[in-house]
Amino acid sequence: MSEAALSTPGYLDRLNPEQRAAVLHGDGPLLVLAGAGSGKTMTLAHRVAHLIVEGADPRRILLMTFSRRAAAEMRGRVGRIAREVMGEKAEALAEGLTWAGTFHAIGARLLREQATEIGLDPDFTIHDREDSADLMNLCRHELGFSRMAKRFPAKGTCLAIYSRAVNARAPLAAALGDFPWCAEWEAELKALFAAYVAAKQAQGVLDYDDLLLYWAELAAEPELGLGARFDHVLIDEYQDTNRVQAAILAGLRPDGRGVTVVGDDAQSIYSFRAAEVRNILDFPAVFSPPARIVTLTRNYRSTAPILAAANAVIAEAREGYAKELVAERQGGLPPLMIRVPDEAAQAAYVCERVLEAREAGVALKGQAALFRTASHSAPLEVELTRRNIPFVKFGGLKFLDTAHVKDVMALLRLAENPRDRVSGFRALRLVPGIGPASAERLLALLAAPGGTEALRGARVPARAAAEWADFVALFAGLRAGHGWPADLSALRAWYEPRLELIHEDAPARIADLATLEGIAAGYPSRARFLTELTLDPPAAGGDLAGPPLLDDDYMILSTIHSAKGQEWKQVFVLNCVDGCIPSDLATGSRAGVEEERRLFYVAMTRAKDALHLLVPARFHVHNQAARGDRHVHAARSRFLSDAVVARLAERSWPPPPPEEARAAPGPRRDLAARMRGMWE
Ligand SMILES: Nc1ncnc2c1ncn2[C@@H]1O[C@H](COP(=O)(O)OP(=O)(O)OP(=O)(O)O)[C@@H](O)[C@H]1O
């Protein structure tokens, strides 16, 4: 051990023996198999800090997390731990941890740096899922598949099949096993995917999957030297990685030296993105000698009764999970299963309990309502607003999905890469009078060398003529670059007056763009900004807000997927009924139901002190025509089996009226007698 570590013997004392073993493990491959709330994030942060304390160069540590937020938190934690040991100079070292981020964001940076060596344009732009579906649609149209006698799969389905095939590294026929209704189109889909790949390459765009695919190829070529750039590779939430990600790791570190992966097979919830739980189960045997496994089974988060109920849920999983978690925190009340008549009552119940807890000193930020699908929280959002309880919602409609933000991003992307047709198509049509046909023609001009100049003299429809010169001036400025985020200010100055002409709610949209400019200032360049935001869009207002909002207290509303890795003192799980969880979209297959069970387990294990599982007797059917009023009567979720319910306390809410109010026989107001009385 180095002197620094010896002089501070207390620095790993707060860890338990298994956690400490994981932190102190040497150079061979390591798998930390950690149950919910067992301190895996904490252990990983200590391991990184320990490596730095021991002299590792932080710039040669590759740390992959599930979200940008998780990476930022991890950097903060590492910095704090290292500072305890090394004092102020740790600050600079932790800041050197520049290769911490999501797989996709790191892939994008590495590919840009090595672009010219692997035949990529270093100015490539990245398409989000929607842009990718649009490009797929364009190819589908150009191949004549949109005019087939029999209906050809829609653009989103085509993209899903493509993505499944490449991420699972499976032949198309195998990927079609998950889309049996499309199997008859195998030959056409193959032609379509070839055209899609050619279009992406011609336009200098990469989609999400490409970032991993190209990276896997790059990592597999030792002479390109990627593996030699890093001494340590650490990956969090390994249960949610897919085969391509496993291939990247294998390429970077064929012998497993310096590799640490951390995860929990019982929390694997992303198979719909081709995540492969076998990655973590098979990890030790990939290496020879096999990786060391450290198992963390002490749960520090939840009280014993909450953990007992969560353990009972996962015990019914089809595959057995090896770790039965043991609670460190004894005492506490059993989780509540609350029966409510409907979602309005559910919302009222949550609000009452939240306010009650706040009176008792639990901050709103320590309380969260979790739900399977973003739309499930709508009645609660109304009730919270009515009662003036501030909240921030994670998951669901993203800030970047709004039309005006997409417009701005498209124009910035086109300035970055004038060959990007999907972005160009959107951006050019912002000029009033430019329709689809003109946009196509102008894009062809723009894609040729000297394109920006060619735009100046381009023929445009008469209706667009007045605005055209302004647009070209803006675009030429953006191409040349005013600096960052000055580009965005220039763009806003052009776009916002136009927004005011089109939209009644322009002020709100302009406020969004001001927020966007605030975020932009946090990135060193336009390319980094576009890349990072496209890959990991801010999930909620809270993600975007600067310090003022962060000082406020607000409750958290989150989809269960977005709640991964987090914890709160009091947790409400909404709509614990069949059809919501498990979602009726998943009940078609056993694997689907098993994944929903793990999702329910993730939700329950977020709670530290209090857990409320809400079971409305009827719930509103979502995805129906606007203002539709279909309700269904709901059955308690199948995951709340008798064995699980035995570990819960059951209540009805609102409570039945007191005995005496109910007891009086006969009608409370005898209107019939009044009617008779009129004639007496
Ligand atoms: N050795 C320990 N002593 C005391 N508290 C601990 C210890 N290890 C972890 N904790 C606490 O337990 C809680 C859970 O830790 P952490 O978030 O790291 O768990 P996790 O395994 O990443 O959870 P999950 O996978 O469920 O998201 C945190 O509040 C953390 O501070």
TrEMBL record:
Residues reported in the UniProt entry to bind ATP: 34-41
Keywords recorded for this protein, A-Z: ATP-binding, Helicase, Hydrolase, Isomerase, Nucleotide-binding
Record's keyword annotation contains Disulfide bond: no
Chain residue ranges for the region called Disordered: 651-680
Domain UvrD-like helicase C-terminal: from-to ranges: 304-565
Reactions performed catalytically: Couples ATP hydrolysis with the unwinding of duplex DNA by translocating in the 3'-5' direction; ATP + H2O = ADP + phosphate + H(+)
EC top class, as a word: isomerase
Biased composition (Basic and acidic residues): 659-680
Any GO BP annotation: recombinational repair
Superkingdom per UniProt: Bacteria
Enzyme Commission number(s) of this protein: 5.6.2.4
GO annotations of cellular component type: cytosol
Domain UvrD-like helicase ATP-binding per the UniProt entry, residue ranges: 13-303
InterPro entries cross-referenced by the UniProt entry: DExx_box_DNA_helicase_dom_sf, DNA_helicase_UvrD-like_C, DNA_helicase_UvrD/REP, P-loop_NTPase, UvrD-like_ATP-bd
Listed name of the protein: DNA 3'-5' helicase
Biological source species: Amaricoccus solimangrovi
Lineage of origin: Bacteria, Pseudomonadati, Pseudomonadota, Alphaproteobacteria, Rhodobacterales
